Amino acid sequence: MNPSWWDWDHAFAVFPLLLEGFKITLLATVLGTLIAVVLGLVVAIIRRIAPGIIRTPVTWVVEFIRMTPLVVQLVFANLVLSPYIDSTLAIGIWVLGIHYTTYMAEVYRAGIDSVAKGQWEAATALSLPQSRTWRAVVIPQAIRNTLPALGNYAISMFKETPFFVVIYIPEMVRVAQTYGGDTFRYTESITLAGLIFLAASYPTSLLIRRLEKKLA
Amino acid sequence: MPENTAHPESPHIEFRDVVKRFGDNTVLNDLNFTVSKGERVTLIGPSGSGKTTILRLVMTLEELTGGYIHVGGEPLQYDEKGGKRLRVDDKQRRRTTTQIGMVFQHFNLFPNMSVLENIIEAPVHVMGLSKAEAVTKAEGLLEKVGMGEKRDFNPSQLSGGQQQRVAIARALAMDPEILLLDEVTSALDPELVGEVLGVLKDIAAETDISMLIVTHEMQFAKEVSDRVMMFDQGSIVEEGKPDLIFSEPENQRTRDFLRAVL
Amino acid sequence: MDGVIGFFEQLGPNLQILGERMPLIVEGIWVTAQATALGGLLALAISIVFGVAQVAKYSVVRIIARIFVEFFRGTSLVVQLFWLAFVLPQLPYPFGWQLAPLAIGVLALGLNYGAYGAEVVRGSIGSVPKGQYEAISALSLSPVRGMFRIIIPQAWALMIPSLSNLWIQLLKGSAIVSTVLLYDLYFRIEQVRDQTGTWFAFLFALLAYYLIAWVIVILMNALEVRAKHKIGRGPALSKSWGTLFRSPGSVITEGSLFRAPISGGGKA
For residue C257, is it within any domain? Predict the structure, then answer.
């Protein structure tokens, strides 16, 4: 291969560094997803059962977060919180998780809506208490309906972790960028970072598509 | 009108050794029958007996699993040449199906077009009529189905019965030689069934279009059909003139079926 | 949090600073608007071309479209942006293009979100009721004419909510373009921050993005009402101004919750 296109020395040099960065990428995705999955359910239930005085502001805040850029939120939170929290990574993960909470909440809401009205009525007819109806009847069905969408948002978070570059967290793309800046040679590092993303996200999205078909 | 001169003496529709399977499920098993030119044949039988599949095969909405169907003497989906079963290419298929019109259970009008646009779409873009010719023709047909005043309406503004009458006009606008009626009143509220059947009876009386009909309206079947075929589990149980089938069915399954629906 | 208290204490002077800096901020808003509008248009074109190509008759076309879509969905926006900004100029002849920052932003945003949009287009084409395809076939209409005259106009009404959400995501994604030296709204706010303090600057930035997002929402709601009215579902725009301000809410861009609201032939 023409060495001016592609330099294997650079490729081999940067690859282990990228994998180090990839660990952070994965960690952020997993923890961010966990936050979003849990908080999203909480938000969805609040928006369903809380009185208007709580529900309305929650709805506003959720919508505001969902309709404004993650990048700006990351920088904002980092500037405000860095005096109190040492780990920029922790700040990044929380912001990512909360940003996606607003999406997950909508997914849960759609999932809850998709539970047939007859199920609620049957639970009422059996005089099940409300907490039991939620726990035993509604949430299990809602979650089943929402699994593929949750999976897709997890992949989406994975691909948005590079937004962390704006607060200099050394995830994979930041590592690639730094390597390029240090060596004045970007081709291998950035290209490899992209390919690693592709290699990780494509099989996962295939898996989710299969899950979708199975649950459909 | 597309020409249909190939074999004037041969049956208009011919099913020969027709097999249709969906996966492991055999819907039609070795089916043979013919429909003559101008004949009206009604298919009756319990649901799942394969009646609708027969219509969909003629319209090439389903692919034959085995056997042959001929329309006007021409092979429709597959042809036998030198002992081999060859697929008829799409162009040839479309040429044959241009002579065939179909009315669906759920009307399937195009919601993004007005009533008039629905009707002139195929005459202009398939038969090559000028727009003015197509409009004149469409207006005549709309008069005939009693929808003359609704030509600029959107399908969603019409009742089910009205939509179905438009769908009938749309099918007739192609000057079909064969008309397939697939449970055309099953999706209608009971009070709207009459207007649609009335239109169809008029068409049956005024034209010599061959018809293949699937319906649960036994009175209608009795009035328009030349022949009734009773289906069960993918094969013909009994067939004959409607008077005979409805009054003195020979087969026990026909008797059971008629007792259940009448 | 003294930041919050400072926010209120300094509100007056900060507004004054903001006023003085307004020309630069407006410039930033203009850049963000350009990136969002041009990127959105490119994304729409890519969505339609590659969405339709994925249901094409010829498997070669389908496979090429599929590879394109998976590639640009799978490699992350930031990587694509950096690739265009840093790698492309380093490639040897005949590449080695140093694109203008705006071109880089528009290309990356358009390619990335266009690949997502292609999935939306493909999904909504698949959601048009089967009876419509059968009617096309029964009338012997050619498949190409059926696709463009009958299927796509109906699919269009189905896909607008998802495309609307993707466009908002594109707007949000555009805030990353300052990393390739495109001086957008976010960049200008960063510049003001030293003088006004973090809280004031960033709340202003978020609010500005929020308002731009609402412009997209209203525009797309109007398109949706119009498209639905055209296929006979819902009132004319002139009779339903209220729906323009409906929150984009819960359209799931990907995944199984994307189901057709239209069923069968339906009764009137």
Answer: no
Residue A4 domain-assigned (yes or no): no
Which of the residues C82, C199, C218 would you substitute to probe the A interface, choosing the one with the greatest number of A C-beta atoms within 10 Å?
Answer: C82
Domain extent for C212:
2-245
State the sign of the Cα–Cα–Cα–Cα dihedral A82, A86, A87, A90.
Answer: negative
Average pLDDT of chain C is: 86
Please check whether residue C259 lies inside any domain of the structure: no
User: Which residues on C lie below 8 Å from B113 (Cβ)?
Assistant: 150
For chain B, the domains span: 1-99+178-262, 107-175
Q: Which residues are within 8 A (CB) of A155 and not within 5 positions of it... i.e. 6 or more apart?
A: A201, A204, A205, A208
Q: Which residue of A has its CA nearest to C167?
A: A67
The three-state secondary structure class of C202 is helix
User: Using the beta-carbon criterion (under 8 Å), do C77 and A71 form an inter-chain contact?
Assistant: no
Q: Is A201 on the interface with C (CB under 8 A)?
A: yes
Chain C residue closest to B100 (CA)? Answer: C138
pLDDT for residue C183 is more than 70:
yes
pLDDT digit string, tens, across residues C217-266: 999 999 998 988 888 777 888 777 777 887 776 454 443 333 333 222 32
Phi-psi region of B210 (alpha: psi -120 to 50; beta: other; left: phi over 0): beta
Q: Does an H or E element contain A10, and which?
A: helix A8-49
For residue B156, list chain C residues with Cβ-Cβ distance below 8 A. 231-233, 266, 268
In a domain, A200, yes or no: no
Alpha-carbon distance C60 to A146, whole Å? Answer: 34
Q: Is A106 in contact with C249 (Cβ distance < 8 A)?
A: yes
Of C137, C145, C232, Cβ closest to residue B111:
C232
| Cβ–Cβ gap B126/C267 under 8 Å | no
Chains C and B touch (3+ CB pairs under 8 A): yes
Structural domain includes residue A181: no
Contact call for B156 and C233, based on CB within 8 A: yes
* Residue at C221 is within a domain: yes
Instruction: Pick the range with the lowest mean pLDDT from A201-215, B115-129, B242-256.
Output: A201-215
* Chain C nearest CA to B119, separation (Å): 10
- Gap between the Cα atoms of C1 and A144, Å rounded: 41
Provide the percentage of residues in chain A whose pLDDT is more than 70: 98
Cα R_g (chain C), whole angstroms? 22
Domain coverage including residue A31: 22-168
Fold of B1-99+178-262: Rossmann fold (3.40.50)
pLDDT at A3: 52
Number of domains in chain A: 1
Q: How many domains does chain C have?
A: 1
CB within 8 Å: B108 and C150: no
State pLDDT tens for residues A69-81: 999 999 999 999 9
